[in-house]
Write a structure and sequence with these properties.
The complex is a heterotetramer, with two copies of chain A (228 residues) and two copies of chain C (234 residues).
Chain A: E1 6-7, H1 10-13, E2 22-25, H2 35-44, E3 49-52, H3 63-68, E4 72-77, H4 86-93, E5 98-101, H5 104-116, E6 120-123, E7 137-140, E8 143-148, E9 153-163, E10 169-170, H6 179-185, E11 186-196, E12 216-219
Parallel strand pairs in A: 1-12, 2-3, 2-9, 3-4, 4-5, 9-11, 11-12
Antiparallel strand pairs in A: 6-8, 7-8, 9-10
Helix pairs in contact in A: 5-6
Chain C: E1 5-6, E2 15-16, H1 19-29, E3 35-38, H2 42-45, E4 57-60, E5 64-68, E6 89-96, H3 99-107, E7 113-116, E8 120-122, E9 127-128, H4 144-150, E10 154-157, E11 169-170, E12 183-187, E13 191-196, E14 199-205, H5 211-216, E15 222-230
Parallel strand pairs in C: 3-4, 3-7, 7-10, 8-11, 10-12, 14-15
Antiparallel strand pairs in C: 1-2, 4-5, 5-6, 8-9, 12-13, 13-14
Helix pairs in contact in C: 3-4
Classes of the chains: A alpha/beta (228), C alpha/beta (234).
Amino acid sequence: MPIDKIVPDVAAAVAGVKDGDTIMISGFGFAGVPNDLIHGVLDSGAKDLTVISNNAGTGTEGLAALIGSGRVKRIICSYPRSKGSDQFDARYAAGEIELELVPQGTLSERMRAAGAGVAGFYTPTGVGTDLAEGKEVRNFEGRDYVLELPLRADLALVQAYKADRWGNLIYSKAARNFGPVMALAADLTIVQVREIVPLGDMDPEAIVTPSIFVDRVVHIDNDREWDI
Amino acid sequence: MPIDKIVPDVAAAVAGVKDGDTIMISGFGFAGVPNDLIHGVLDSGAKDLTVISNNAGTGTEGLAALIGSGRVKRIICSYPRSKGSDQFDARYAAGEIELELVPQGTLSERMRAAGAGVAGFYTPTGVGTDLAEGKEVRNFEGRDYVLELPLRADLALVQAYKADRWGNLIYSKAARNFGPVMALAADLTIVQVREIVPLGDMDPEAIVTPSIFVDRVVHIDNDREWDI
Amino acid sequence: MSTAVSTSGQGAGFTKLSRLQIARRAAEMIPDGSFVNLGIGIPTLAANVMPEGKEIVLHSENGILGVGPAPAEADRDRDLINASKEYVTLRPGGSFFVHSDAFAMIRGGHLDLALLGAFQVAGNGDLANWTTGDRRFPPGVGGAMDLAAGAKGIWVLTDHVTKKGEPKIVNTCSLPLTAPGVVKRIFTDIAVIDVTEGGLVVREMVPGLTLEQLQEMTEPPLTLADDWKELVVA
Amino acid sequence: MSTAVSTSGQGAGFTKLSRLQIARRAAEMIPDGSFVNLGIGIPTLAANVMPEGKEIVLHSENGILGVGPAPAEADRDRDLINASKEYVTLRPGGSFFVHSDAFAMIRGGHLDLALLGAFQVAGNGDLANWTTGDRRFPPGVGGAMDLAAGAKGIWVLTDHVTKKGEPKIVNTCSLPLTAPGVVKRIFTDIAVIDVTEGGLVVREMVPGLTLEQLQEMTEPPLTLADDWKELVVA
């Protein structure tokens, strides 16, 4: 039977998301955020979620809407506060959302570790700072490093540019950001793309996320500008 | 001044290689082996070399010739013995070359660690085997892992398909293999390519090795079949 | 498909499978839609005998997903080879990637299955396939330990006995291990055997072979599955 | 280039640089051929005022090498932004890559230089730029700790004093550290100061500013370089 990871709509794409899930969400600033999939999760009603994303949402839609709904109990990110991150800021000030702040390189490397079968790694980032508190520090060749552990998720919501039915992906410019590494780290990788192409249409040298890392693909042709 | 990493010939490409150097050499089987650069090192006369490469050379040219010259004191690889690896086999049997055997995934991950500032990582590969002997074993979430350390080199010799003057690289099919990860792990990354293209000619989405990892590029238009 | 050859010197009325037939039987049993690594030796032959009607994506440790069958001699490309250094092709939908990503796929548990060769397999699933222990010859591990540690399932493809006629399926591996307790199924030239918590279970035997004969060539005790079948390769 | 504004309330006869002028002065001093990360804040402005005649490759933590200046409004692309979430362009020779590779470049020591903002810098090069310590507001570290730990050199671009007029160059950072002892050079709106083993050395001061005035706005003791110059931005 032909492999076909393409699902008809957002509801089918996020089917199975449940209370307590940990969800990675691609994007850096407003580039590469899978807003349709985020609203799919919002519409699913799932709660007590842990979100892993570089930022914590801005404006009134997308991640800000999910956080505003009160269904995110915890967020793991590197840079939550930005112009317009009012939804997060308010919940944070009220003590209604837990924050684990992770340096951006450690955040992406912990994802890669999870996806690459690495159980832990030593990084120089954060040594001697509050963010290394309580973590094992070890000296290699005269320099201190912090032990960091893999970061996994039940779901990864990723925005990409093009996909085929096997789930091969290419991205658009800096909207690539966390997508390819989140796709490695989640049990279920769900992707929204602007275009679906026939199998064999992509240059095999230029595929960024090989099919093996992708589970579901949904085509979103309404590429509107979100309030994020 | 325009950045220009293109050098006129093989001698200029390997200039500076010296006795005792550790040299990474790309390739898997006969695909992606930088034979011209290897012969450049051979011609340089440098000795007491440590070579890091997946295989240990076959036939009479390329890595086999370098090993046959007696200038390689030590090789770090995953799969030294193949049909035609007579040069290596003889030196090994005579106790004239030291062998560090490393599982292939650990080999490439140790290179990535070196290039990515990671001082050590825990892998499940090799646990309970002779290749983990003497290495730290640690349990994470009920499973044992081995601590592996970064693998660096003074030089990486890489074969790629196309380059521009900044040193951006794309590869050809499975000849990509170790090239992009060796480029991360060496102090000096030297690349032989079949084609030089003008800056801006490569698709920025499809560049495999970004310019930052490359130091020197030499154009080899004589793409002959080597006895390897 | 090559012709099966008669066994000689065993006086038994059965015919062993060729290497390609072993590969074919394993290929037939791969679930549709799987992502599967083919290791050095008999496993890489499977790319040439994949069953019709299923879509299975083959992975090669040297940075390929979507490996296709061997090309015609005129179409050989020195940049396109598999783990056994044999010429292959790329199927539509295939992709190339760096070695470290190829092994992220392997170690990270993204492969449904890896088909590997073996020197020895123990009754508990221990696998030995990287060194004969003979110190005169350099050992070669390649990707075997990563595959054994990382793939969700490990199937072994091997001759049932060594060239000297000694069992390769043993009580305890005498050769250094590749990984402990990882093998789930063994495809040999005379049988298909599952490694279960309750021991080795014979699923298939070549026509004419009896359990007693098979047991003589196998160290650990064998149980015949209730629904065992004749091992016939399409 | 925006016009420099007169300082107010300090009664001093000197003019502070604008943010863009701070960025420009740093850009002028970047060695030709360097690979340089631009951090959030004043540093990302440098992409708009790179000197002619040099080829410097700008890195952005969100997966870009070869960042160019801001586009005209009509050419803005929502998929092409920098670390400060401002629209940028890509120069010929530029490339895009995944976040984990962007930080492999950073942590792996491949960047010649990173230009960062700061809340505080200590005389020994300690950097604090990720949290004000005010628990009402969430802290944001972004890529700062990776850059501080990984780039070969760290230059800080900052106002010389806080909005309240307090020194940002201090004896000991009162704010939580980003990394200890990493800053090599400080570009402020009134001076360029090197962090050396022998202490802080003033390389440049804006016209009309005296060392005494500068010292009053700076906690650690300052030495004037023998070859100090007026800080004038081209």
